[in-house]
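Colleagues,

For the teaching module next term, I've prepared a clean inverse folding example: a structure given as tokens, and then the sequence designed for it. I'd like students to try predicting residues themselves before seeing the answer, so please don't circulate the second half yet.
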């Protein structure tokens, strides 16, 4: 079997489109950057006559370059930030929520009503049922609360 001496730039352009469409079911993967490398290789083929080895070399070099560029693009748009461990921690949204003690706290432990849900809670001191509280932290499934400061 004989390998062609060169590939048409149209073959690279079609490959770029096919690879770009493969990105659609899995957004955020690096296929789009590989498609960009194939498109740039097609553009180079349209501008200059390249042998097959030159096309493959250009594709590999452009592929490395676009994937590295893609890393920095994704890193720039990553809004989570480094060291943010609140991913999948919806319970942290409860911090600052206001509720009321649903029962009297004994030895700093009791239950708090937030909306329509009763939560296990801990407080530094004992509080009476019905006392307004604010959530200051969450430990597992237990809320850490304090008395709500009254506005003057």
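(Answer key — instructors only)
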């Amino acid at each position: 079997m004989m390998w062609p001496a060169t590939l048409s730039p149209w073959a690279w352009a079609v490959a770029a489109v096919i690879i770009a469409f493969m990105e659609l079911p899995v957004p955020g993967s690096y296929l789009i950057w590989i498609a960009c490398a194939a498109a740039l290789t097609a553009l180079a083929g349209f501008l200059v006559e390249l042998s097959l080895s030159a096309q493959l070399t250009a594709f590999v070099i452009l592929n490395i370059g676009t994937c590295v560029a893609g890393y920095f693009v994704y890193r720039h748009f990553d809004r989570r930030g480094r060291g943010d461990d609140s991913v999948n921690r919806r319970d942290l949204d409860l911090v600052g929520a206001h509720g009321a003690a649903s029962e009297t706290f004994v030895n700093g432990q009791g239950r708090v009503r937030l909306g329509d849900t009763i939560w296990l809670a801990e407080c530094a001191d004992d509080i009476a049922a019905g006392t307004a509280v604010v959530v200051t932290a969450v430990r597992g499934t237990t809320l850490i609360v304090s008395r709500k400061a009254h506005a003057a």
